[in-house]
Amino acid sequence: MFTGQWIDVLLRNVTDNAILILTVTTGVMVVGRGLAEPVVHRLSPQGVLVISAALSAVGLYLLGHTSGNMIFFGALVFGMGVCYFWPTMLGFVAENLPKTGAVGLNLMGGAGMFAVSVYMMFMGGFYDRIVAEKLPAGADLGEYSKAAPGTDMANAYGAARHAAGPEVLNATLIIPIILTVAFIGLYFYMKGRKKPELIAQAA
After folding, report:
1. C-alpha 134: how far from its chain's center?
2. Which residue ranges form the domains of the chain, and what is each CATH number?
3. CB 131 within 8 A of CB 168
């Protein structure tokens, strides 16, 4: 759902340290997945998804509303959030929809990549509109984007991009918030569905 390329493109227009932040986020994901066993055993898949979505939302908020070293803390929280998203969703399908087999897993993977593609197309236009609004009235976005470095047009374009970045993050924040609510609903649905099964087994 949240890929490295997606994060890099998103953060490149928010901070000059986008690659470093991407490295922090990716490092957290690598370490977190390496220590996944105790987390998975303590929490249900739907519980992990709820926590992941909530942490992703908090991380995005920090990235869009803080500066300095707090940005790296936001990257740390965001990395913790996206760490288990993908493997847990695949695991949930495999465990609860076993009859779908490889088709179900491939459909889940395809749906995730399709969602990212749609997001990139939508946010690309949204981002361009915000940048254009930050430029002087009547300015041509294409001309400003091609301006020579160091010129007034190039400086104005750079300032507009940095001002637009946090607004894109704020818009993106809607996604993990919606996912948090959806996964909370899934958590209680699965909890309610398992109660009759436990009663039947006890009988």
Report:
1. 25
2. 4-202 (1.20.1250)
3. no
